[in-house]
Automatic annotation (TrEMBL):
<protein>
    <submittedName>
        <fullName>ABC transporter family substrate-binding protein</fullName>
    </submittedName>
</protein>
<dbReference type="Pfam" id="PF00496">
    <property type="entry name" value="SBP_bac_5"/>
</dbReference>
<dbReference type="InterPro" id="IPR000914">
    <property type="entry name" value="SBP_5_dom"/>
</dbReference>
<feature type="domain" description="Solute-binding protein family 5">
    <location>
        <begin position="129"/>
        <end position="519"/>
    </location>
</feature>
<keyword id="KW-0732">Signal</keyword>
<dbReference type="InterPro" id="IPR039424">
    <property type="entry name" value="SBP_5"/>
</dbReference>
<feature type="region of interest" description="Disordered">
    <location>
        <begin position="24"/>
        <end position="57"/>
    </location>
</feature>
<feature type="signal peptide">
    <location>
        <begin position="1"/>
        <end position="21"/>
    </location>
</feature>
Length: 615
């Protein structure tokens, strides 16, 4: 299960980077998020430095062929993968090949790069300290949807309104658009000129309400065709734009009904091209969806820029447990398996027919406490018991037994917003954490439990999205240690943990991973009071205020100092327990070109349009 972190409760997300609790990955139970500052330069297995950006492939010609890849077993559910019900890794890995790519993308280490093939984003004011932050966006003239309709101001304005500005959805519990980002879109004011007097303008300006540090991720990252919505509700695209500018709630409520439901699909029914045009290098192939088996995309002949390297990509709906065998059989060409102690030996056993890449990732494993109810909530005096549990969790043993066989350089992770391989890590940890939980201390854990006055054994249910062999092993190690102190640890992993027990608070500890990208302020959505991805109900005024200051500044010094405050408070109050950064492993058919492991939450498919089979 991969859950991606959203940049903000109401921010548009970039390039398939951000996923909520219902998302899944073949590689792990991971929740999407961010690792703060950018990571170090990528290196290949040979140790040579390599670019983190997409390769410049020169004069590419699309070649005939089929490439097979799988994110996991879940079926595709719809062209609009931005609803609270469809926003998953399974959907976005497909839609990232079809939606316009936007103005920016993440490189393999979290660095954000400009996508000049789509357009440009130029700061008019705000980056040098003057107010406000104003960005002028220009889409290249040739950018069109596959039906020939231009990608223009109307599409960006509709993207903005679909995130429920307050005038459209004053009740946060009942948003008009069922957008994964919720309601109260506050990052920007309504997009305007310089050419936005015309609904089909290629240039427009966005003024940001605050000095939002992740502004590159807000506008143009998840476009859907405004002209299709207009046609479906019986008005022109120009009339739809005017309805937004006039704050016409009635018309937009009708538009939202189509946005919410009109792009949903039944298994095996390929979305019709007249309602689901492509804005990127691939499009849906007629008859290319076999329910329960796979969906095939084909190269978009009307794409204006560098074309897809290979004619077709087929996404198989295949459980992760079968990926290694499928690679060996040739049924898959690229896989991204969970990096367990068995992974590398299994892949190496496939011989010269397979190539393997490994590297660091911006995904990190953690145990999160339930503050809403139960023994770890503050209402029950849970601080002492949270400390006791932290003292008995054998983090070093988990890393030594389960991670170092894959990554010999792996260490116990002692921060949440920075990673051990990032430059700021040591400075942040020194300022926020004294190392008290680095080694198991059963004597201290027992003492704290006795002082709490709660009768032992104390039941602790640890939930995760199962099956997941590595997580099962982690809980076995935790139980072996913590039961000695007076806890009774129970494994309640289940396939529906995230959609059931987590959202209903029916657990004591949740075990999963946040998958990062390079964003700066995405953690606000996890640790701030009442924010959507704060599943455990944690609330701390100091943390809330620090995130407010961090998220309203473009100053890297402010980001670092507020991160230290946040990390220290999260350790002092024990929001949860970080464990380790995930090692990354990918494998692919020998001789394939441009398949590249990435540290970010996009996964190996981040540049799938560049993949090419050996000739």
């Amino acid at each position: 299960m991969k859950i991606r972190r959203t940049a903000q409760a109401a921010a548009v997300l970039v390039a398939g980077s951000l996923v909520l609790a219902a998302c899944t990955s073949p590689s792990d139970d991971e929740t999407t998020g961010d690792g703060g500052d950018n990571a170090t330069e990528e290196t290949t297995d040979s140790g040579e430095a390599s670019s983190t950006a997409k390769e410049d492939l020169g004069d590419v010609q699309t070649v005939e062929g089929d490439i097979f890849y799988s994110t996991g077993q879940d079926e595709f559910t719809g062209y609009n993968s931005l609803t609270a019900d469809t926003y998953s890794t399974y959907n976005n890995v497909i839609m990232d090949r079809i939606r316009p790519e936007g103005f920016f993308y993440f490189g393999t280490d979290g660095t954000i790069y400009e996508n000049e093939e789509f357009g440009t984003a130029e700061a008019v004011s705000g980056l040098e300290g003057d107010d406000p932050l104003v960005i002028e966006y220009t889409v290249v003239d040739d950018a069109v949807w596959s039906d020939g309709n231009a990608i223009d101001f109307a599409d960006f304005l509709f993207e903005w309104v679909s995130q429920n500005p307050a005038w459209l959805s004053p009740d946060p519990e009942n948003p008009v658009f069922n957008h994964v980002s919720g309601t109260d879109y506050t990052q920007t004011n309504v997009p305007t000129g310089p050419q936005a007097d015309s609904w089909d303008a290629k240039s427009f300006t966005v003024e940001y309400a605050e000095k939002y540090p992740d502004w590159r991720l807000v506008t143009g990252s998840y476009l859907l065709p405004a002209h299709v919505v207009a046609e479906q509700i019986g008005i022109t695209e120009e009339e739809l734009v005017q309805a937004i500018l006039d704050e016409d709630v009635e018309t937009l409520t009708e538009a939202a009904q189509f946005w919410n439901e009109g792009w949903l699909s039944s298994p095996g029914e390929v979305p019709a091209p007249e309602i689901a045009p492509s804005g990127s290098r691939y499009q849906f192939m007629e008859g290319g969806w076999t329910a329960g088996q796979s969906i095939t995309l084909e190269a978009n002949p009307n794409y204006w820029g560098t074309p897809a390297a290979t004619e077709r990509i087929t996404f198989r709906f295949l459980d992760a447990s079968g990926h290694n065998q499928a690679l060996q059989n040739g049924d898959l060409n690229v896989i991204e398996p969970q990096a367990t102690v068995d992974t590398l030996p299994q892949l190496e056993g496939l011989g010269d027919a397979v190539e393997v890449q490994t590297g660091s990732t911006l995904t990190w494993e953690h145990l999160d406490f339930n503050f809403n109810n139960g023994v770890f909530s503050d209402d029950e005096g849970g601080q002492a018991l949270r400390e006791a549990f932290a003292y008995c969790v054998p983090r070093q043993q988990i890393v030594d037994n389960l991670i170092k066989p894959v990554d010999p350089e792996a260490v116990v992770m002692n921060a949440r917003e920075v990673f051990p391989f990032q430059p700021a890590y040591d400075e942040v940890v020194e300022a926020s954490y004294d190392g008290r939980y680095d080694e198991v201390n059963l004597e201290e854990a027992t003492r704290l439990i006795e002082e709490s006055g709660i009768a032992t054994p104390i039941d602790v249910r640890i939930g995760y999205s199962a099956p997941n062999p590595r997580r099962t092993s982690e809980i076995e190690l935790i139980k072996s240690s913590c039961d000695q102190a007076g806890f009774n640890v129970t494994d309640i992993g289940s396939q529906d943990f995230f959609s059931n027990a987590l959202v209903n608070g029916d657990y004591e500890v949740a075990l999963f991973a946040w998958a990062g990208s390079g964003q700066i302020s995405s953690g606000q959505n996890i640790y701030s009071t009442n924010y959507p991805q704060n599943y455990g109900g944690y609330s701390n005024e100091t943390v809330d205020q620090a995130w407010v200051e961090l998220s309203a500044s473009l100053d890297e010094t402010v980001h670092l100092e507020q991160t230290k405050i946040i990390e220290k408070e999260l350790w002092d109050t024990l929001f949860g327990i970080p464990i380790f950064a995930h090692p990354g492993v990918i494998a692919h058919t020998a001789g394939m070109e441009n398949v590249r492991q990435t540290a970010t939450q996009n996964g190996v498919a981040w540049n799938a349009e560049q993949w090419k089979l050996a000739e």
